[in-house]
Amino acid sequence: MADVSANEPGTSQPTEKEVMAQQFVDEPTFNEHGEPHRPSGWMYKSFRLGFLYIPWYASPRFQLAMVSFVCFMCPGMFNALSGLGGGGKQDKTLANEMNIALYSTFAVVGFFAGTIVNRIGIRLSLSIGGIGYCIYSISLLVSVHHNVRGFNIFAGALLGVCAGILWSAQGAIMLSYPNEQKKGAYFAWFWGIFNVGACVGSLIALGTNIDVKEAVDVSDGTYIAFIVLMAFGAVLALMLCNGTRVIRSDGSRVVMKKNPSWQSELIGLWETIKFDPYVVLLFPMFWSSNWFYTYQQNAVNGAYFNTRTKPLNGFLYWFAQIIGAMVLGPLLDLKYFRRSVRAKASLVGLFIVTMAVWGGGYAWQKHYTRADVNPKNGWKGWDWTTPGFVGPMFLYFFYGLYDSLWQGCVYWYMGALSNSGRRSANVVGFYKGIQSAGAAVMWSLDRDETPYMNELISNWALLCGSLVIAAPLIFLRIKDTVDIQEDLQNTGETIEEVLPEGHPEKRASVS
User: Fold this and answer.
1) Cα(270)–Cα(272) distance, rounded to whole angstroms?
2) Among 4, 109, 236, 507, which one has the highest count of C-beta atoms within 10 angstroms of its own C-beta?
3) Above 90 in pLDDT, residue 328?
């Protein structure tokens, strides 16, 4: 093996990825276990504990598991808290204002978050994101005992900044780390673990409010539990490795920008659109993807049920997300059909499910208005012991199932357009930015007491319309595979640096 540590005077030092690529020179392609050779070092050693196989630390699977647990602790707990309606407070005004600030800054920062992630790295991006969630929950706890509206609004705006960075980093991992054939499975693993966090958070809220049959604020203990878990998630993020060190099971590496600068990554935003302008046809799907949370959490769960029943519904909602992801992921990866065929089928299936679920929601929403469920008018909120509870409970369950199907398809469509870590971070940044702009508008409409039926119709129309707009991209632009040369454009990397000797794509490129 060549000595990569020695350099002639006046020559530049090799990059980390060039050093790692050099370690494969003159070595056999596969070891005695049939695995491609990996560089030496503890982070590239896999092992077994009985029947349990533990992949190497710098593997896509291990890194995805870690980022899943970070999201379990941070946005997972945030989802559980938000799912209570009003951030756990009976008066939803403050939470609406915090969420307007949150999603307004999220929309701006999210659009440019890919630049930040590509510049500072995955690990630091995720940790910064976790800190924002912790401060948000602290501000809600303080607001129970003191009027700190300024702090609350600041915490919401800060979380928007932090969450934009966190989700762009998460998306880059989920879309660019796995091989093309496993992107649906990776979504299922991530979304399942992430939503276990929301389930646990809902159970915490249920346990601390089990005897509260009125519609009141949740207890201090609920907030404290969320704060501790979110802080742990922010620390856990620091234990990940950055994408330049990750090696897949076939020996290939993640395509990243070599020596990124702030200027190169800002230019990269434009290059992402220029690479495939059709991606703008997904923007309405991005806008719609958080629009329905406000209606579901405030108009259904927050408005109609009492304090102890809300977290039960929340648990079922997030549990349904796990089921939906576990069903959808393998279907999107089915090897019996070409990826282009699976993409078309998923769009048609998603349209049918949209009509069914929101048609059921329309039938339920005809039963009440804002005035009917206003506590000032004597409304006490349904309990799980109330006759007829099973109907809306199942509706809320299917709302959660639908959310996982929508988000899963959007992520899979984005992942089908590119395998580049740099480009994926930028596209996910667009996704989260536009998504958050839509959420900010919807939270402001709810703050202004838009009729619940109007909110539902807006959801139904936006979701169906955005599927129609996305159809040309799904039917015409999603290919069965993305050529490695397309992913390498404008990154400064070469095939030799990202593919090992003997890799099928490398041989095809040479020929």
Assistant:
1) 5
2) 109
3) yes
Average pLDDT in the chain: 81
Residue type, 331: L
Length of the chain equals 511
Report the C-alpha gap between 180 and 505 in whole angstroms. Answer: 12
Q: How far is CA 352 from the centre of its chain?
A: 24
Flag whether pLDDT at 92 surpasses 70.
Answer: no
For residues 428 and 110, give the distance between their C-alpha atoms in angstroms, rounded to a whole number.
8
For residue 267, which of 403, 124, 407, 119 has the smallest C-alpha distance?
119
Which pLDDT score is estimated for 256? 64
Name the more confident of 10 and 503. Answer: 503
Map 213-232 to HEC letters: CCCCCCCHHHHHHHHHHHHH
128-159 pLDDT tens trace:
999 999 999 899 888 888 888 899 999 999 99
**Burial code of 120-159, b = ≥16 C-beta within 10 A, e = fewer?**
bbbbbbbbbbbbbbbbbbbbbbebeeeebeeebbbbbbbb
> Exposed/middle/buried for 18, CB within 10 Å: 0-12, 13-18, 19+?
middle
Answer left, alpha or beta for residue 272, where phi above 0 means left and psi between -120 and 50 means alpha.
Answer: alpha
**Do the beta carbons of residue 213 and residue 306 sit within 8 Å?**
yes
**Rounded (10°) CA dihedral 292, 296, 302, 305:** 170
Fold entry, domain 56-249+273-486: Growth Hormone; Chain: A; (1.20.1250)
Query: DSSP secondary-structure letter at 302?
Result: I
Q: Read off the tokens for 114.
A: 């890919």
Domain ranges of the chain: 56-249+273-486
**CB under 8 Å, gap of 24 or more: what pairs does 296-299 form?**
296/396, 296/399, 297/82, 297/83, 297/84, 297/85, 298/85, 298/86, 298/92, 298/96, 298/446, 299/365, 299/446, 299/452, 299/455, 299/456
Residues 414, 158 contacting (CB under 8 angstroms) = no
Q: What is the pLDDT of residue 56?
A: 85
Segment 395-446, tens digit of pLDDT: 999 999 999 999 999 999 998 888 777 777 788 888 888 888 898 899 889 8
Q: What is the pLDDT of residue 486?
A: 64
Confidence of residue 327 (pLDDT cuts 50, 70, 90): very high
Rounded Cα gap, residues 201 and 206, in angstroms: 9
The contacts found for 30-33 with CB under 8 angstroms, 24 or more apart, are 30/502
Positions of E strands within 55-158 = none
Determine the Cα–Cα distance for residues 346 and 289; give it in Å rounded to an integer: 16
Among 290, 280, 292, which residue's Cα sits nearest to residue 104? 290
